[in-house]
Amino acid sequence: MTDITKDAIAPPRSFLSQDAIQLFYRLLAALLICAVLAVLSDSFLSLGNILNVLRQASLTFFIASGLTLVVLTAGLDLSVGANVALSACIAGTVIHKTGSPALGILTGLACGGIVGLLNGVMVTALRIPSFIATYGMLWVLNGLTYWYMAGETLHGFPAGFRQIGSGYLFGLPIPVYLLLVFLGIGTLFAQRTIWGQEIYAIGANPVAARLSGIPVARRLLLVYAVSGTMAGLASIIFLSRLNSAEADIGESLTLPAIAAVLIGGTSLFGGVGTVFGTFIGALILTLVLNGMNLLSVSANWQPLVTGIIVILAVWLDMKTRRRAQ
């Protein structure tokens, strides 16, 4: 490996780093939110509510985890919510037509992955900025989904399939186990593999990464494909959880996923952030929304509060990182 390659690819990111400090602050914020909500609401610490928070946080995390890799390269995937909708509707149709949940799951994952790959092709081969490429894909997917569903709703799926999103194992929701699995995989991939370090290098300085021999285009194709596949996974979880699919199923999913990534400390400028931080971001966002529901705060205020949290999280993150430099 040449010297310039060594410079472009940082050593494996340690949890005794600036990232660890940022994660500590976010964990502390999550604990403080829990403490406040425990005082304000008697229902917050109930087992049912805690499990509900974990389930909802896991659903947001599935979308946000793949999106984190895209943002680490200084890109953005605005199509994840629309991807969830199309993948869920196609997967649901396959299950209805064939009676095979396994085939439906594979179809949903494949559909999500193909959409992500197309995003990657637009960014790399056509050199369209990721914001524009994925925003255009959002509208394309919305149009395809509404045309495909033609105003219909799919519902009534096999009981075994529904267990994926609504079942329990040893008292914990099955999506929580899936969260732990993909949290572990995502963290190890991003921080302990050469591919993960190359993704960080691309986000930090794409020109230096290219000059060092990193196959930038292939890595970008990879991260967009992973983001799309994770959206496909989320579509399966949502489909089994709701026991129905319709064209607008993904309209409210993109912004919370982006919020979780940003609250978790991943920089929109690339090269900074962790998948574990995104999990904490999803947990903080879910705790706040859950708390507002428990306190009977009008749903009209929830987007406002979410926006304020995102702005504060990004501002505090930038401020603390500047001090550390």
UniProtKB/TrEMBL annotation:
Transmembrane segments: 23-45, 57-76, 102-121, 128-148, 168-190, 220-240, 276-295, 301-318
GO CC annotation, single: plasma membrane
Cellular localization per UniProt: Cell membrane
Domain of life of the native organism: Bacteria
CDD domains on file: TM_PBP1_transp_AraH_like
Gene Ontology molecular function: any one: transmembrane transporter activity
Keyword Transport assigned: yes
Pfam families to which the protein is assigned, alphabetical: BPD_transp_2
Membrane topology: Multi-pass membrane protein
UniProt keywords, alphabetically: Cell inner membrane, Cell membrane, Membrane, Transmembrane, Transmembrane helix, Transport
Protein name: ABC transporter permease
